[in-house]
Every structure is written in structure tokens, then in C-alpha cells.
């Protein structure tokens, strides 16, 4: 099975900050990676797929990059509504594993 | 508008069974792969199972190791409904179970989970 790790696990940031979250895969997955945002008590929301494609309707302050085993999610200027937990997911092969999550909290 | 509505979550004793349902609307259900994802209280997301749609590997099923032999995913395309039959439930199966639609499907594979239901809570406890 493909394992995903995320760093950091938790970060504290201020509105307007640039935030970068890293996701690493245990083996090469091309660009078969998606990013999701989850707010407390709600279902996950798709942000990015194929590593860098922005889902329709998602703010352009979110961007993704990477391939093979290392990927990043960048929030260019953190907004109050962005405080949430972010998960990466590989869709290269079943089981479609998720990373452990990165919680972005208010500084 | 795409909607996914899960139901069937409940409190069940260890060793018991439960069937979850996910009613889908707003898209051609039969075409798309569908999946179940769960989230234990205070924990992260865990992919559980998936089933192919007619746009790809129709009817093919996939499971995470911890539920193989205990859970069965199925779909009724005439009713636009996804199911998860869960047998021999354990305390570790306690979680909110989400139904998700796979999206951006091309060349027989899909690249994201683009729509999610609101989840249904399964609690396994004596």
C-alpha cells in the first residue's frame, strides 16, 4: 500500500500569511494526488486534483505542485475561512490512502 | 445539483451488522465509481471501499485490508443508491461514514472525490 505523510501536522498562522503544506508518498505516484479541506463538523471539500488542477469554484489563492513522491499545497494569502484541516490523497492505486492531515490554526 | 445523502448509521454491539445507504441525485449515478470513506472521532480520513461504475470497471469492488471479508459494497443503479453492508463490527469501526462520488474520470480511471455526503455515524459499543 502507498503511504502518505504530511508536514507539518499542525501550523499556526495569521491572516495574510503564505502557507505551505507538504505531502510525501512512499512510492512514486506520478501526479495522482488530490487535496481536500475539512472544517470541523463538515464533509471534506475537494480543492486540487492531479496535483495542480484547481477544482471549479475554489479560490485561486490555493495552488498545488509536485510529482512522483513530493507535493505541496500553497495558500498564497491565508483568509479567515481557510482555517481548517487539509488532507492529501493518492489516487494512483487502491487502497486510495489519505495523509494524516495538517491543521491550520489561527495565530 | 449533485446530492449524496447517507443513512443507516446507528449504535450497534460488537459482532453486530449494519447496512448503510447513500441516495444519490443530480448526476448519472450508474456511470460513476463510488466510494465510502470513514473518519473515527477526532481522527483523520480513512478510505474504506469503492465500486466501479459503467464508465470504468463496472461492478469491480475494492476494500481496505481492515474490512475485507466483513464489509460489502454494492450499488443499485435503478434506485441511484450505494450501499455498505457491514458485518462482524468492531469497536475500531466506530466512525462517521461518508459516501463520495469519484470525479474527473477519463481513460477508465478517476482522479478525485468531487462530491461528498454529510456522513452517517456508526457507533460500535457494548
Question: What would your notes on this structure say?
Answer:
The complex is a heterodimer of chains A (107) and B (126). With 107 residues, chain A is mainly beta. Helix content of chain A is 0%, strand content 48%. Chain A is built from no helices and ten strands. In chain A, the strands form two sheets. A six-stranded mixed sheet of chain A has the order 2-10-9-4-5-6, with no helix packed on it. Chain A starts with a strand and ends with a strand. Helices cover 0% and strands 54% of the residues of chain B. The model of chain B has no long low-confidence stretch (mean pLDDT 95). In chain B, the strands form two sheets. In chain B, strands 2, 4, 5, 6, 9, 10 and 11 form a seven-stranded mixed sheet that branches. A four-stranded antiparallel sheet of chain B has the order 1-3-8-7, with no helix packed on it. Chain B is mostly beta strands and 126 residues long. Chain B has strands at 3-7, 11-12, 18-25, 34-39, 45-51, 61-63, 71-76, 81-86, 95-106, 109-116, 120-124. Chain B has no helices and eleven strands. In chain B, a hairpin with a 4-residue loop joins strand 7 (71-76) and strand 8. The A-B interface holds A 1, 32, 34, 36, 38, 42-46, 49-50, 53, 55, 85, 87, 89, 91, 94-101 and B 35, 37, 44-47, 50, 62-65, 98, 103-104, 109-114, 116-119.
Entry summary:
The complex is a heterodimer of chains A (about 110) and B (about 130). Chain A is mainly β and about 110 residues long.
Oligomer: heterodimer
Output the number of helix runs of chain A. Answer: 0
Largest chain-chain contact? A-B, 26 and 24 residues
User: What is the rounded Rg of chain A?
Assistant: 13 Å
Give the helix/strand class of chain B: mainly beta
Overall pLDDT of chain B, averaged? 95
Form type of chain A: globular
- In DSSP terms (H or I, runs of 4 or more residues), the helix count of chain B works out at 0
